[in-house]
Amino acid sequence: MKKELINLLCEKSFQYSKEPTFKLASGKMSSFYVNCKPVTLSPKGMYLIGHLVFDAISDLNIEGVGGLTFGADPIAMATSFVSEIKKKPIKAFSIRKNQKDHGIIKWIEGDLVAGDSVAIVEDVATTGGSTIKAIERARVEGLEVERIIVLVDRQEGGIAAIQELIPDVVSLITRDELLEVYKLDKG
Description:
Shape: globular
Structural class: alpha/beta
Radius of gyration: 16 Å
Largest sheet: 6 strands, mixed
CATH topology: Rossmann fold
Strand content: 25-35%
Helix content: 25-40%
Number of strands: 10
């Protein structure tokens, strides 16, 4: 499944240029860009990601899987769906970018309560900033973060930054793995 996912990401989500032409969220320029949404929102991508992420957390006794909206949402939902099929239900949740200012003011949407153990998912890690924000907001809501699952590690220090808060980080795919397949395909 991992090889299929790498191929799908190379086909739909990964772009490369010899010159750094892609502006990242951090403001840095890069030679490659990964927009996972065309894959995470596709039927085949959801199927592959749901199974791979479920496999990466199935050893844990957790109640939820989720992360910062919007990148983590389809990953969490696909994983939760697979968890029901595998008869080990794990609820999906979403962490808001901005806190609600009405109703019950909270960062998390989903059927979780303080004290629940969760895994946080991320589509792409560069500096780790979004994942760190998700960890902090989950903790504010009283959730116990057990593991982080990153779909694509850009290998630019983000994993090390995340591990300062949560040592248990799993990268499903690395930039080098994508580059290897991308260069083979492009000749």
